[in-house]
Amino acid sequence: MEQPPSRPRIFVLALKSSVPVLLGYTAIGIAYGLLVVDAGYPWWLALVSSVVMFAGAGQFIAVGLFAAGASLGEACLVQLVVNARHIAYGLSLFKRIKQAAPYTQYLIFALSDETFALLSSLPGPDSGLPDSPEQNRLMFYIALLDQCYWIIGSLIGAIAGTLIPINMEGIAFSLTALFIVLMIEQILRIKRPLPFIISALTAILGTLLLPSRISLLSAMVLSLVLVGLLDRGFQGKTPC
Description:
- The protein has helices spanning 7-17, 19-38, 43-52, 57-67, 72-82, 85-92, 94-98, 104-109, 113-119, 133-163, 174-190, 194-209, 212-236.
- The chain is an all-alpha fold.
């Protein structure tokens, strides 16, 4: 009988799977750490926020909001709108995460955009890692490694920002650039660009036609409805 994968082997598999996030999160975490220090906050705040918040774009936005003097209520509302996309992520992975005890709570906490991209493309049963404790452990390792990459990057950036004067122009775009790269990888992997095209078009229309405070959430809802209808249409077709 074939032995289940050992913990070191699962960790190595998670490490290999998360290499794109390692390269991206380290660089983007450095950008975040630099922004924190540039906004006048102590270097250790970047470390603490990356440990207890770990929200990627939400952390970038939080720095700008508090630096601009926004109230706590305003910051919470903006964060709710910006991070509402995680509702869709969570629902699509709900069954898998629910069955991943004892890692369920951490997986919910650590479900960033890039972690979702990795977890949603995990190998199937023919990989030797079916839905099982080994698969659950793989998910946990991927999520944990991704957060560690972010923490290390933000710490490096914050310390560097206190020691070296750096031009910050354009550096906040780094997170967007990483997500674009991961999106392209997903398109190439699943070979179904239409859902991504629909999402992009609804985002553009939302930005052009709706107030900024509701454009993101409205675009997400509309794109989910359209993609859902599209999938249902494909499923309803039967071969002649």
